Amino acid sequence: MKTPTTALTLAIVMGSVSVAAIVVRPGAKVASNARAFSLDATVPMQFGEWTELPDQSAQVVNPQTKEALDKIYSQLLMRTYANKSGYRIMLALAYGDDQRGGLQAHLPEWCYPGQGFTLGTIADGTLQTAFGAIDVRRLETSLGARHEPVTYWLINGERVVKNSFDKRVEQIRLGLTGKIPDGLLFRVSSIDVDTKRGFDMQQRFTAELMAAVSPAQRMQLAALAPTPPDTPH
Questions:
Q1: Per-domain residue ranges for the chain?
Q2: pTM for the predicted model, two decimal places
Q3: pLDDT, tens digit (0-9, with 9 covering 90-100), for 81-108
Q4: How far is the C-alpha of 72 from the C-alpha of 197, rounded, in Å?
Q5: Which of 23, 108, 182, 197 has the fewest beta carbons closer than 10 A?
């Protein structure tokens, strides 16, 4: 439930935008500029201690039909990786170049129950990398004997957004510049009855992935600064 202060702030911001929209109407996609990229080319098939499993031995949850996904996203990437110990991480990336209205990304806490999963604890937190922290949401999900901890974040426009209020503010900010917001949903999960171990392994996987990609790609995948904190320029 929104607090009175939050609701009032959103009302003021949205009211201001209603006036500005008369003059400025979104017309250019953010993706048409520097953020246009290929998920398949961006994410390496091998990095750190992780190697992609070509046979997709662990099933990545696909929350919707291909037809429905194609309407929301312009790119999808689903892979399974394993380290030398055999621990598997499932990676699912979904990118949409237009995140307005019904075209907005569908979040895991909606999609997993749609596939019959039961949701357990849902908690916001941070995922540490050598290039700074990423604001994430962590879910505990289960389907029969399958226990699947999930970590994800959502980039809307040019920033990680933590909730619907932040997302709306970012959409408004871009709208005032005449840009249509794009969006990236980054999700990692693992089948593990030990939830803490699952989240720890997902953090290791993500931190190593961020270290393996270029500064520009790191910005696209996680809105992280191009250089590590406290690195001399």
A1: 29-222
A2: 0.75
A3: 999 999 999 999 988 766 444 434 568 8
A4: 33
A5: 23
